[in-house]
Amino acid sequence: MVVHALFFLAFLVGMHGTHAVDYTVTNNALNTDGGVRFRDEIGEQYARQTLDSATQFIWGTFQQNNPDTRKNVNTISLFVDDIDGVAYTSNDQIHVSARYVKSYSGNVKTEITGVLYHEVTHVWQWNGNGQAPGGLIEGIADYVRLKANYAPSHWVKPGQGQKWDQGYDVTARFLDYCDSLKSGFVAELNNKLRSGYDVQFFVQLLGKTVDQLWQDYKAKYGNIA
Ligand SMILES: [Zn+2]
User: Fold this and answer.
1) What is residue 196's predicted lDDT score, i.e. its pLDDT?
2) How far does residue 135's CA lie from ligand 1's centre (Å)?
3) Which parts pass through the membrane (predicted)?
């Protein structure tokens, strides 16, 4: 029994060495109100856990059970910085604005959790070798946030928006409609984005052009496209 447990432990340690992702959190804004609020109301340990839970959720949403289908990322780093805006991600590094943390009225822990699900999606999603529309990239990131139940109340309602690739909440709601037509649509779309982008991906996956899908989506909610 003990021997078995030891072997299992060795197996887990081995797995860790091969596949695990490391997460780091650095608060560079402790000399500001927002940095202090981040420390007191969110905390570095919770933030690190959230980077991990978001990663697991994204792999699940993208149906990437096999590591070969995922991007090769060893470390995701989060920085709390004294910067404008909300947050941005580049090179597997997420930067959250301490000024935004300071000014947010409401449950800042829940809000930043949602922001992190969006930003961690940028780390893992494929972008069609840079060819995918920016609105689609942002829409997929907000789609993940939506499916994780961290959509803020100020988002557009289903059926709202002017065009399918408007981005963010508008595109997230549209992608959710597309996924309702064929479960796993967003996962398949993301996997197609591994090697490039073609607007015909929508036809290939759903049998209709994206413009037709957008019209159908608007009509479903009584709106005109
Ligand atoms: Zn984004």
Assistant:
1) 98
2) 9
3) none
What stretches in the chain show pLDDT beneath 50?
1, 6, 12-14, 16-17
**Its pTM surpasses 0.85:** yes
Q: How far is the CA of 9 from the centre of ligand 1 (A)?
A: 38
* Residues 141 and 223 reside in one and the same domain: yes
In the listed set 124, 146, 169, which residue is the last one of a domain according to the structure? Answer: 124
Cα of 45 from ligand 1 centre, angstroms: 23
Distance from the CA of 118 to the center of ligand 1, in angstroms? 6
DSSP secondary structure of 103-166: H--S-HHHHHHHHHHHHHHHHHS--GGGTS-HHHHHHHHHHHHHHTT---TTSPPTT-SS-TTS
Inside any domain, residue 64: yes
Q: Residue 213 C-alpha to ligand 1 middle, in angstroms?
A: 24
The helix (H) or strand (E) run that includes residue 168 is helix 168-181
Residue-wise pLDDT tens digits, 31-65: 999 999 999 999 999 999 999 999 999 999 999 99
Q: Are residues 224 and 133 part of one domain?
A: yes
